[in-house]
Specification:
Elements lengths: L1 H23 L12 H8 L3 H36 L6 H31 L3 H17 L20
Helix pairs in contact: 3-4
């Protein structure tokens, strides 16, 4: 009887874990008002020079983000080591939290810098078209559209 009960509990736990993992993948946000880059480029009527500037900015940003995300992953790994110690040191854990927050802040600043740099390549008229496109995106991703405006999308809540 106990063996059968243990199997049932194990099966139930695995089922819950599987459901949690599939839910954690996030909402499919396709069709959520996000114009494909080529479409937005056509709507903005970018010059070849602007398109090249944006391409260069994207490549630089991607390289920066790869490095920052690797640093963040390493700092989180260090936190797990500290938390897993037989006698966790509160001061070391707090210091590690500061490191994690510092890297996360660098990521947020890099994102803002990238968005501002991309916007700076646009003329006043192109910026107007861009803002209109962003307003449409917000409407379609609100309560009536997929996801919720301001939700985390496909990014899961970060844990150590």
């Amino acid at each position: 009887m106990t063996n059968k009960m243990n199997r049932s509990i194990l099966l139930f736990t695995m089922l819950i874990a599987l459901i949690s993992l599939s839910y954690g993948q996030g909402i499919n946000r396709a069709g959520c008002g996000q114009a494909p880059p080529f479409r937005m480029s056509q709507e903005l009527n970018l010059t070849e020079e602007q398109a090249q500037q944006m391409k260069d900015l994207r490549m630089d940003h991607e390289s920066t983000m790869i490095d920052l995300n690797a640093s963040l992953k390493q700092e989180r790994l260090n936190m797990r080591k500290l938390m897993g110690a037989d006698e966790p040191n509160k001061k070391k854990i707090y210091a590690q939290l500061e490191k994690i927050n510092s890297v996360d802040m660098k990521i947020q600043k890099a994102r803002v810098d990238h968005r501002l740099a991309m916007r700076s390549t646009l003329s006043a008229e192109q910026l107007k078209v861009y803002k209109q496109g962003m307003m449409m995106k917000g409407r379609q991703c609100g309560p009536d559209g997929p996801g919720v405006k301001g939700d985390r999308g496909n990014r899961p809540h970060r844990r150590f």
